[in-house]
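Feature request, filed as a ticket because there's no other form

It would be nice if the structure record came with a short human-readable summary line next to the tokens. Right now we just get the raw output. Example of a typical job, pasted below so the devs can see what we mean:
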Amino acid sequence: MSESIGEVVDRIQELGPADLLAVREACSRALVAADWTPLSDDQVVEAVDVVERGYRRDTAVRVQLTAEVRVRSIAVRENKKTGVWLAERLRLNRSAGYALVRAAEDLAVLTDLAGESVRPYRPATAAAIAEGVASVEHYRVIAEVMKQIPAAVAIDSEEVAHVEAALAEYTRTLAPDQLRRVGIRLLAYLNLDGDFDDVDRQRRRRFSMNPQGVDHMSGLSATLTPATRALWDVVAEVWAKPGMNNPDDPDSPSGSCEHVDATMLEEAAGRDNRSTAQRNHDAFKAMLQWVVSSGELGSHRGLPAQIIATMTLDELESETGIATTASGGTLPVKDALTLAGAGRPFLAVLDDRDRPLHLGRQRRLASADQRIALIAADRGCTRPGCDQPPSRTEVHHIEEWVNGGRTDITVMTLACGGDHAHVHDGPGGWITRLIDSVTTTGQLPDGRSARIGWTQRGSGEPLRGNTVHKPRQYVDWFRRRLHDQMVDEQLRREHRDWWAEGRRWAREFDRLPDPEPPSWVTYPDWAA
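Raw output as currently delivered:
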């Protein structure tokens, strides 16, 4: 090289953001392909440190770019929240997209109305991350500790700033788990008497349901207020007693133990081998069943508050497989049928493209039966990429009612509240159409078109369908693809000449130009 490394580095410092991104991409690709074996042990150790510092500095870049996306309303132009836009753009979980937005609120440098830079909300932590000292895990620990500062101390901004600066300084020498222990000690110093007022308790209350695992089980975490804990203790005393609500014992009393014969309860308790945690779970389940079946929950979006499960006819007849609930969860078909009990069943019949058969109505609002049919067909919001379950959706007329649209399940779909509000005739509004009524690239992996297609007005994009709610189609497509590969490999081995000739014909066919459509073919204005 005619230039030294120092000169190259100096020139890089003078580049603008666009050129810096190009240099970064080139360096990143070169590092991935680099051969590290010629390096000495000391050089490998130094490389580990350098790469980790760069990885941590990337957090500062990510939050700053997230702030730019938000300030420039880039996500708003597509009628989306910034967290949702980031999740879809970067293929992240929505929780990760929203976490990035929260990090930008704490760590990014913003600009006020006068054009002046405003320092980050957590300046010491932002400086440590920009320096490559603190990691994302360090930031999460600091944010967690800062949220737990007692309300009486939090009103003193200088004291809060000192705590944040101290924690940021500790990131230079401590790992995140060690930093958490330091944070606990700092919180103890800030509240020497150990007193917590009601504001602190109400701020920390929570009840969180974790996503379902591969076994369809869900973890639960909660922080209960003293009053909530007292109420649960009362419920547990009468619903979780040994022998009560035992799913493994057909003779176990159900509901509350108040009106249960003492001898029957004693015999059931003798057969009860459950742990306390298992009894609490079964009591919680029995209590929820009692509440849902009582009818006191009323209705939700025009339907009684009840469990609505979707399954195929084969799964219904064989009592095997996995059913999907209107809230987006999954449960074994056998459990769904058990929960159904003596309740009134509904049967929704769909065609081979998941289109519900005719069920029309001469009114604007969809009936409960129509909504159940749409839940079976669409499984949730139909905007591409949206994962909202049916319980959080509204019934949407593909052709607006005021424009002559029919309240017919074949021309209606489901849309969540946020996406439904963005279907309009104004600039940037979304358009929904039956996706089979126009040539489109919005198809499922197996080549079948989705039922409903969405596109943003004026974007020029083709209609696209949503396949988030139908992962089984991906599984079926993947199985067929593996089968086709196995057949193709067998032909290649056993009939090499035939296989080569077939490949040659396929290549020749791909070179043929696409014919122009006939002059008499016309498309509607919205398909342009």
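Something like this underneath would help us a lot:
Confidence is low (pLDDT under 50) at residues 342-347, 357-362, 437-448, 520-528.
Residues 23-201 form one domain.
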